[in-house]
Amino acid sequence: MRRRVLLLLPFLIFLVLGFFLYRGLALDPSARESALLAEKFPSFTLSTLEDPDARIDESLLRGQVSLVNVWASWCPTCKEEMPQLLELSERGVQMVGIDYKDTREHGRQFLEEFGKPFEVNIFDPDGDLGFELGVYGVPETFLVDANGIIRYKHIGYITPDDVEEVMQEVEKWR
Amino acid sequence: MALMTRAGVMLVLLLVVTRAMAVSAIDIRDFKDPVLAERYSDITASLRCPKCDAQAIDSSNSPVAEDMRERVAFLLREGRSDQEILNYMVDRFGEFVLYNPRLDGRTWLLWALPAVLVVVGGLVLAAFVRARKNARVRALSEEERMRLDSLLNRHPKETE
Q1: Least CB–CB distance from B92: residue in A30, A33, A134
Q2: Does residue A42 form part of some domain?
Q3: Is residue A162 part of a domain?
Q4: CA distance to partner chain A, nearest, from residue B50 (Å)
Q5: pLDDT, tens digit, for every residue of A53-90?
Q6: Which residues of A touch B90 (CB under 8 A)?
Q7: What residue in B sits closest to A131 (Cα-Cα)?
Q8: What ipTM score was computed for the predicted complex, to two decimals?
Q9: Do the domain assignments include residue A27?
Q10: Are A132 and B63 in contact (CB < 8 Å)?
């Protein structure tokens, strides 16, 4: 009788392994937790895309909830994302752009062509601010609350289906 | 024959060129201090590229891996310790970038499992050895021997 039970052991191991591997199939391999959730937005001093002489810093994000979108003119999915960003802006969300590893000329052209949802664009030609934010794939979007704390991160472009989810997050932290 | 030799030469050349390309993709930094160079290659080999699925930043061409390598070199020259540099990356890119995850509430199973499996394997082995020791070879009884003989003789060898 004891031997019979022992014979079942490989099958039990198979069941346990199978359960975990099956669950793994449904996981998104590109999903990463953000290291910066509940952390302060990193401090920076940079110019704006519009004005090379301007100096802005993280205090820009104080006072109201804002969505900080990291974009670049060389990024194809950023173009597809623009209509959704425009919609969010129309629905009253303060949008701040970070033009990441880009040139002023290309960045401005991009906005002329695809729309201007951003109240201000932080110009980050060397990607230093992007590095502080742990950006590894453009576009990425951060929700920053009125105290300058990062509350939510959306990796990849915001699809039309994602707009409601993002809107809910904005409402949650308002 | 000449054609085959030519094809062979082409193949070798192709291999040499692609190999050279693969090597040049990884930038080798000139640290004057060999210890620093060693630490650089250790750290970049133990950090996982966040953009790629299973590649360390030392062998990845993705822009973020390049940036991370550059930052590792910068921090090393600044005199930061290995642990400080790893923490620096984790603060920005998350635990994901560590190829050797830290021991905490979520990773204890990962770290403990090999040891547990060795112990379980040892116990199973010990059980086998004991079972074998206790087994006795029993001689056949007279009745059994007769039955065996009759079975063996029922089918005489075909060569006979």
Answers
A1: A134
A2: yes
A3: yes
A4: 7
A5: 999 999 999 999 999 999 999 999 999 999 999 999 99
A6: 35
A7: B92
A8: 0.84
A9: no
A10: no
Q: Give the nearest chain B residue to A30 (CA atoms).
A: B53
Q: Is residue A150 part of a domain?
A: yes
The CATH fold of domain B30-97: Helicase, Ruva Protein; domain 3 (1.10.8)
Scanning the structure block, which residue is given the tokens 């206790």?
Answer: B134
Token pair, residue A130, equals: 């992007």
pLDDT tens digits, residue range B109-147?
889 999 999 999 999 999 999 988 887 777 888 898 899
Neighbours of A58 (CB within 10 A): 16
What residue segments make up the domains of chain B, in order of their start? 30-97, 108-154
| Domains contained in chain A, number | 1
Task: State the amino acid at position B94 in one-letter form.
Answer: G
Which amino acid type is present at position B7? Answer: A
**Which among A66, A165, A65, A64 is positioned nearest to A122, based on CA atoms?**
A66
pLDDT, one tens digit per residue, over A88-141 is 999 999 999 999 999 999 999 999 999 999 999 999 999 999 999 999 989 999
Look up the domain containing A69 and give its range: 36-173
Q: Which one-letter DSSP state was computed for residue A56?
A: E
Cα separation, A4 vs A24, in Å, equals 31
> Does B96 sit within 8 Å of A33, measured CB to CB?
yes
Q: Which residues of B touch A (CB under 8 A)?
A: 50-51, 53, 62-64, 67, 71, 90-96
